[in-house]
Specification:
Length: 248
């Protein structure tokens, strides 16, 4: 976890534009969920916040093929959440809802939100509650873990050189003093992110090109957490042309 680690087992798919990337990722998600539901009673997808989180949801709800998914059997999670009250516009789940997530025919009982300060006394308590939900739902593995990547190489709320990023033996962790606002957050740990059949990094924009290069070609965990997450069956870097600029 500490040394540079190239990513020979990951597949990089480059799309011409951010819109093409979001549309292709949404179509890929529909196929992945249909396939998962063909062999299991329920499917688990973990969504992301940030710029690409809303983009993929917007593309998903605009896609006629979304109706091929039995959404009532899909569990939705988030890889991280900003520790803010329910409905706060800066929360990842609020932004996904605003992008149209709430228009899918999901069972609200299967939409697993990280509690905020309106429901818990601290980010630690929220992390413990969320971890308990992961355990009690019997989530053996997420079918798809969708992750955005920050320009600094962070994934979920696991930031470079931040002590919370290296948490071991836990499912979720409280993050304080986040370098990106808001300062208090809850994140799945690296160990938990890797309990995923497929991990998809969704990255757009020239400001992320160096993070993509480090993530794909290798970089110490402390510098680039994104370089160290693998799916059990597949790891995909789904990027646009600008984000791929430094890959050569
Ligand atoms: O704060 C966050 O940032 C990352 C990346 O966001 P982006 O806007 O740079 O794409 C995101 O993946 C994470 O869920 C979010 O909490």
């Amino acid at each position: 976890m500490t040394g540079p680690h190239a990513c020979p087992d990951a597949t990089v798919v480059v799309h011409p534009t951010r819109q093409a990337l979001a549309d292709a990722a949404a179509a890929r998600l529909v196929v992945a969920l249909v396939d998962a539901l063909a062999v299991r009673e329920v499917a688990h997808v973990s969504m992301t916040g940030g710029s690409m989180g809303s983009e993929i949801v917007r593309s998903l709800v605009a896609l006629p093929a979304r109706d091929a998914v039995d959404w009532g059997r899909v569990h939705v999670w988030w890889g991280d959440e900003r520790y803010l009250p329910a409905g706060d516009p800066d929360r990842n789940d609020t932004q996904n809802d605003a992008a149209g997530l709430s228009t899918l025919c999901l069972d609200p009982a299967n939409v697993h939100r990280v509690p905020g300060p309106d429901a818990t006394g601290s980010a630690e308590e929220a992390a413990a509650t969320y971890a308990h939900t992961v355990r009690s739902t019997g989530t053996g593995a997420f079918d798809v873990m969708v992750l955005g990547v920050g320009p600094d190489g962070h994934i979920a709320s696991l930031f470079p050189h931040h002590p919370a990023a290296g948490t071991q033996g836990e499912i979720a962790v409280a993050v304080h003093d986040s370098p990106k606002p808001p300062p208090d957050r809850v994140s799945l740990t690296l160990e938990c992110l890797e309990r995923s059949r497929e991990v998809w990094f969704l990255v757009s924009g020239a400001d992320k090109a160096d993070a993509v290069r480090r993530g794909v070609q290798g970089s110490p965990f402390a510098e680039t957490p994104a370089a160290h997450v693998r799916g059990q069956e597949r790891t995909l870097w789904l990027v646009d042309h600008d984000a791929a600029a430094d890959l050569g």
